Amino acid sequence: MSRIRAFGRFVMELLREIGDENAYRRHLTVHGRAHSGAEWRRFSEERMRAKYARAKCC
Amino acid sequence: MIFLRRLFWLIVAFAAAFFLGGIALNRGERINSIWLVLAAACTYALGYRFYARFIAVRVMALNDKRATPSERLRNGHDFEPTNKWIVFGHHFAAIAGPGPLVGPVLAAQFGYLPGTLWIVIGAVLGGAVQDFIILFASMRRDGKSLGEMAREEIGKVGGFAALFTVLLIMVILLAVVGLVVVNALKGSAWGTFTIAATMPVAVLMGLYLRFWRPGKVLECSALGFVLVMASIFGGQWVASSPLAPWFTWSAMSLALAIIAYGFVASALPVWLLLAPRDYLSTFVKLGVVLLLGIGVLFVHPDLQMPAFTRFVDGTGPVFAGKIFPFCFITIACGAVSGFHALISSGTTPKMIAKETNTLPVGYGSMLLESFVAIMAMVAACVMQPGVYFAVNSPAGVVGATPAAAVAKIASWGFPVSVTEMSALAHSVGEQTLFYRTGGAPSLALGMAHIFAQTGGGQALIAFWYHFAIMFEALFILTIIDAGTRVGRFMLQDLLRHFSAPLGRTSWMPGVILTSAAVVGGWGYFLIQGVRDPLGGINSLWPLFGIANQLLAAIALCVGTTILLKMHGVKYMWITCVPLAWLVLVTFTAALEKIFSPVPAIGFLAQVDRLQASPAAATLTTQTLIFNARLDAALCGILLLMVATILIDSFRVWYGLLRGTRQSRVAEAPFVISQLRAEEI
To answer: Which among B424, B420, B415 is positioned nearest to B448, based on CA atoms?
Structure first.
């Protein structure tokens, strides 16, 4: 049971990493800021600018 | 313990030999797909345990005491030490695109064996090695890109070749994936409605994420998924309603719509359409790959396609050309893909916490990608060969009417009837499945066949077919949007040397002009593909394959130079063997595409045939002649690029071996890692 739970946690972590939620959490920690709509917009704009300057794989 | 371990690997080695031998030597009898799956899995296990570990320990000397860039340059954004399995999933999601799904489906025209062997052996000895070495090199160089490493290790010419090739590949890639979508949706009200509905869904997701629930990406993606699933059911209703004609489009109308979409989408703010759909398509992609893997293992269907078909002689209807070199060009992403080198030198090296993590991430992810290609091969080969060829053959090859097509296909020894095809089309909610070239519809049919046996039975086959089409189109549209945007950035970067405002990404006229130029580039090839009497895939997919393998050759040249600087000639063979193979394949394919006297293969022979035809003076024929010449020129440019990068690399290698060139390794300095296990 604990293994299933650990696997579930891993899957959620992976999805959060792919979905940039973890990166946003790190961003808040590094800059010592609290979550807000404006903060998310600032973060996602910066991240997307870098992300979509690179080609997506075929 | 050591004895047991050795015994285990001995058993795996025997199992690999047994299953590979089984699929290679089996003739006449139907083979179960589980043989392919086990042959691949055992070979991957051996490659990972012995070859990859040999490279990691002896060649790279991976050292966990050495701080990686994610630790030294940690900034909470790109540079962040991350759990190795999360980086693995992240990297896999980034490298897995339509290539490993479509390539094997097209190559199945040779039979299941040639493609399967290339996918397995190519990945273990070539593709995974390339990804692993480039990831390692980039990690040791503070996450530098392939272009930067090529410039540093080989010279300016190598760097320029890498950049130019990426731009060329982008143009061809966007055209070819656009064509795949066009051929999947033409005449399909259900499919077109579903894909059209994903656009407002993505916009809704964008607004939700930006204004209503900022930062809740998973929640927003779950909502998007539910809406997209609803749109599949909605599509079924639309297809049988008076609205159906509104969504029943010709190939040309769809091509123009995709071009218009590419132009508008690439100029819209990223958060509104691209980013939310990208999140959704990545999650769906991972889910479907997992589902397909489980489905194949659970259902383990028999393969209907023989080991070899008569088309090994080069007369194939899906694309023309013999196994060598065209099988190795057609399947790129499942075996060796140059594009992966861009990902391995992009975000991934900045997330590696410990040097040894590059082994599962670099080598392991490529093996998983290769496994996806095996699943796609299985999905294509579970169909009756007659059905496979009826779906994938263009009208220009098999005849313009269903009756003519089935007669032609039956004459090849693959019986199929119009009634059978009509029943199949009806069962998946389509008017017809003839002439659906491009690989996506046949892959969707194979997937639907497997999924339907896993759950829901034949009652759900239409749903699964359209689910598979939606899944493919979803990430292809994301590639088109993101690719056009990247192409625009590259062009603007180039143009800023001539006009400063044109280089500014915030200046709207510049954005519109450069977007139009990039869309015009791939849009031209897309239209060319739609007009091509041989179906477009015949000329565009090999061009894309050649370009992709050329990029792999550049990556392997960079890898060879680095190995040469690290160890002299001792380990050069690791990258030189796949490099030599790719050069041989790329040169042969490009030369055949230009100069082959067979019009279905050679572009110049096509020109001669068109010029000799009675309709030579008509505008349509003149356009076809121009297109064939353009494709020949493009192939020539690709050949020139291979030759340039090779000559430049040989020059560097010769200097290194003679001692006339400094063999200093351009790695970041050694710093002891202070990273604690709980930080990862």
So the answer is: B424
CA–CA separation, B598 and B316 (whole Å): 12
Contact B76 A30 (CB under 8 A): yes
> Is the pLDDT at A53 greater than 90, yes or no?
no
Chains A–B, number of C-beta pairs less than 8 Å apart: 127
Query: Nearest Cβ partner of B85 from A10, A29, A41?
Result: A10
Residue in chain A nearest B82 by alpha carbon:
A17
- Token readout for A22 is 């973890």
Q: Are B486 and A48 in contact (CB under 8 A)?
A: no
Residues B574-603: tens digit of each pLDDT: 999 999 999 999 999 999 999 999 999 999
Residue B143 contacts A, CB cutoff 8 Å: no
Q: How distant, in Å, are the alpha carbons of B376, B477, B499, B664 from that of B440?
A: 10, 14, 42, 48
Predicted TM-score (pTM) of the model is 0.94
For B200-203, the CB contacts below 8 A with 24+ separation are: B201/B227, B201/B228, B201/B231, B202/B273, B202/B276, B202/B277, B202/B280, B203/B272, B203/B273, B203/B276
Cβ separation A58–B337 shorter than 8 A: yes
In chain B, count of helices (H) and strands (E)? 30, 2
Contact B282 A18 (CB under 8 A): yes
Contact A18 B77 (CB under 8 A): no
Token digits for B64?
């966990």
pLDDT above 80: residue B77: no
* Nearest in space to B679 (alpha carbons), one of B63, B62, B61, B76: B76
Question: At residue B566, what is the residue type?
Answer: M
Residue A56 corresponds to which tokens in the numbers above? 């997506």
User: To 10 degrees, the CA torsion angle through B179, B181, B187, B193?
Assistant: -150
**How buried is residue B546: exposed, middle or buried, by Cβ count under 10 Å (0-12/13-18/19+)?**
buried
8 Å CB contact of A54 and B342? yes
Instruction: Using the structure block, give the residue that is written with the tokens 């040779």.
Output: B110
